Amino acid sequence: MNEFGGNWTKTKIEILVDYAKAYLQIMKGKDFFKLLYFDGFAGSGSIIKDNKVDIDITVGAAKRIVEIDNPRPFDRYYFVEKDEENIESLKEVTQDSFPNKQIFLVNEDCNRKLIDLSNYLRNPENKSVRTLAYIDPCGMQVEWRSIEALKGLNLDMWILVPTGLGVNRLLKKNGQISEAWLKRLEKFLGISKTEITDLFYTKSPTLFEEFTHIQKEDKAIEKSAELYGNRLKEVFDHVSKPYELRNSSNSVMYHLFLTSNNKTAVKIANDIVKKYNG
Ligand SMILES: C[S@@+](CC[C@H](N)C(=O)[O-])C[C@H]1O[C@@H](n2cnc3c(N)ncnc32)[C@H](O)[C@@H]1O
């Protein structure tokens, strides 16, 4: 069972479910489209709040999506999960509980399956497939090249971006970022380390030429959300305003975006985001 989350975990799932229902409503009666639901970080099927005193179990996104029959169900469900134990419990709440639905579970890395998804959707035989994807990592596992591979496809995607919990944490205040962390940032953002440091740090000369004062951008979280949103706009025609997931001290941990090549999709997502951002 996945152990994390607070109310934002629930809200994230409600946003996805609200959107999926609106999406399925639009697709109702359009039986010529084969609807694929792709979940790249599917989890164990349920989420237990990390609070030993007051246990709070939330039904994970996978089951919430599989159980939708109205306005119409998806035709196929594809769940990717790297952890073997999670796959076992996910199987119980999806495949075993819904034997009449076409549910596929794969114990793999999401990056690899995103590339496979891209190849599958590009095959002319699959031109009637329309995809809703949900990319819900806990950290910086998604590589930019996997997102780039989705360019031009008939795919709407909710993607959770660890701006506060990921990018901002790796951007050390004093600018002394290890090579390993810089590599991670490069893979995640798809830009070079020089671009990263130029974007997030200002250098000013001190009295002696050989010393420079390095100052981290004050609003690094907001800046990383803006950067990632702009990167997404290079791949998709439309990107929603993000939903901000904040912790109990009101710090932003993640930004959740919807991307699509369809304008209406993003209009619907913006309405949902506005409702939950309050
Ligand atoms: C935030 S949880 C997903 C929660 C899920 N969406 C839900 O609603 O229940 C992230 C999951 O991704 C899995 N994971 C981590 N790295 C992965 C990777 N590279 N590819 C696929 N799954 C991965 C973890 O084992 C974890 O279960």
- What radius of gyration results from the CA coordinates? 20 Å
CATH homologous superfamily caption: Vaccinia Virus protein VP39
Largest sheet at a glance? 8 strands, mixed
Mean pLDDT comes to 94
Number of domains: 1
Q: Please tally the helical runs, counting DSSP H or I stretches of 4 or more residues.
A: 10
Q: What top-tier CATH class fits best?
A: Alpha Beta
Q: Which shape, going by the Cα principal axes? A: globular
Share in β-strands = 15-25%
The fold-level CATH name is Rossmann fold
Structural category is alpha/beta
Could you give the distance between the termini? Answer: 30 Å
The kinds of small molecule bound in this structure are:
S-adenosylmethionine
Name of the CATH architecture:
3-Layer(aba) Sandwich
Helix content: 40-55%
Number of extended strands: 13
Secondary-structure element order, as H and E? EHEEEHEHEHEHEHHHEEHEEEH
Protein name: Three-Cys-motif partner protein
InterPro entries: Tcm_partner
